[in-house]
Amino acid sequence: MTTTTLAVLVPLLPFLGAAAGLLLGRTAPGFVRPLAVLPTLAAALIAVVVAVRQGGGRAIDAATELTPTGSVPIDLALHLDGFAVLVAALVGLVATCVQIYSTAYLRDDTRYPSYAALVSLFTSAMLLVVYSGDLMVLLVGWEIMGICSYFLVGHYWETPEARAASLKAFLVTKLGDVPFLIGLFALAADTGTFRITGVLGAVANGGLDHPTLIALLLLAGVAGKSAQFPLHTWLPDAMAGPTPVSALIHAATMVAAGIYFVARLLPVFAASGAALVVLAVMAAVTMIGSGLAALAQDDIKRVLAYSTIGQLGYMAGALAVADRGAAVFHLISHGAFKAVLFLAAGVVIHAAGTNSLAAMSRMGGLKKRIPDAYWTMTVALLALAAIPPFAGFFSKEAVLVAAEHAALGDRDVAPAAAGWTILIGGLLAAVLTAAYATRLWLLAFKGRGPEAPDHGKQPVAMTSVLWLLALPTIGFGLTVGVITDWFDGHRLTPSVTTAVLSTGVGLVGGLVTYGAWRHTTALAARTPVGMVVAHPDAEPALVEIEALTAHRAAYGTTGDVPDPADPGRLLLGPLHHHAATGFHLDALYTTLFVRPVEAAARLVRFLDREVVDTYVRGSGTGARWLGTAVRRAQTGNVQTYLSALLAGSLVLAIAAVVFANVNAGS
User: Fold this and answer.
1) Extents of the domains making up the chain
2) Torsion sign over Cα 535, 540, 541, 547
3) pLDDT for 241-284, tens place per residue?
4) Which of 54, 42, 40, 45 is nearest to 2 (CA)?
5) pTM of the predicted model, to two decimals?
6) Is the CB of residue 13 less than 8 Å from the CB of residue 43?
7) How crowded is the C-beta side of 196, counted as CA atoms within 13 Å?
8) Whole-Å CA distances, 408 to 34, 321, 523
9) Residue 464 neighbours by CB under 8 Å, 6+ apart
10) Interatomic CA distance for residues 110 and 337, integer angstroms
11) Residue 295 DSSP code
12) How many helices (H) and strands (E) does the chain have?
């Protein structure tokens, strides 16, 4: 089979698996798990074959006209370059691990068939975005992912958090998708095509008339999809969904789509220096703000959610200095270790019976009970903190090196202001990243107190995938010199300056956090708080629902836990409360947008009920009264009818005589 034929199968197989899973979920439940795992696994293997065949060489393009649309045709097109084939392999790997993990995590969930089908559809949509060579076809996958995220985040619809989070994720991302759609049409109007190769060719020939406007419109959609400031608030709340869904969204789909889109169309954004500066400021604010927020969260999944936002900020920062190789390198590296972190967090939650780091810090023996999660999560946190020789070090260094070159004027593609913004913001974020990664590890695995209730041995399906994903976390960074062809031939090697700076500030952040933890644990009480004691045979998903409910009851929705043993509280000081609430952005948006919209809705409802309905009811009442009057005249007496007829005739005769005389006199 040709490479293009194999590439078509990559998004098609998960789609067929999703359709078959929905059709057979109730009638043949025994086929649900094979239909969830096998098509996704086959797609992952084929994606690897496509990557090997493409080999980082010349891009492979294939297209057929989808439908005649007039002056700007829409083509069913494939564009396979080094970035596309590598990202597709990552998506397939993570999606397969998530499907395998979910077979145990949601083993007795009655809604598992629809869940598995939606995960497959989610995977298919992301693969369509990755391989698509036409912007309209890409948009189809883009929107399908938004719909799937709505249903998957709201999987536990019986909890108010899940319902609110799914609706928030849908609305916030759609808020960015509106200008994104306008930007796509404006781009097609300027270049005369939706084909990505045609767009890039037109940009290279100076055929883009409104580069800044188009770039800013597209960035709005990217900010929503990839959770960048100021449209990032949906992602921490999306943790109300099942843990494997969080792993899929954060590691390989949805949030990666926006970064990948900008990387694919980077010349469009690079055509406007102002757009790159805006992207740089957005990325720097996202990196630093999310790092502070992560340092104050108590829910283990919310810490990881804010860390995802920060790492996406690094990717956006690499794009702001016009280095898509560094951005995609960090996207792939982050996808591996973030999947490990979330899937391991699911094991930790099951073992501890709680999402709360404050409660875990008062438990003993947790790391001995779940050694697989402990070691793989430790490796992934080291990668997150960019400690060599793990993959996160090399990919983050690639971003900082690109920023250094832009700041010093070694590259004239991006403004120096963007380079300095990303370089300074990236170094500050490196301190914060190491700090919250160290805090999470200490609170989760170095707790002191009575042992957590034994919830049974972790299923093999949940622990085996952790080691599979840990392999690229450990070794991917070491192989980047071998696969430079996949990154446009660009060698992504760290420089001495950035390596020393970033590793040094990371070690300082970790050591300071460790010292703060030693100080706070010496003063803290040893009474367990916020612990959920689940049945030993309880399913992981059930434990997570109970933990989420108990955490909300104990601490509310902000996660600002009054725990004196928390080193984050000591490090942040008076800033802790503000960081724990996400710097009150949700409250600000509620004041600026939600309440005015609700007030407008109440006004419309009042006008509809009290004004419009009054006229409607009035017309009905008038017709009823007229009918009553006419009905009373219908007596059924012939003499009455004849009398009325004669009286009417007499009146008409008199009126005719009167009008005749008036006309004769005039």
Assistant:
1) 273-570, 633-666
2) positive
3) 898 999 999 887 888 999 999 999 999 999 999 999 999 999 99
4) 54
5) 0.87
6) yes
7) 30
8) 54, 12, 47
9) 100
10) 30
11) T
12) 29, 2
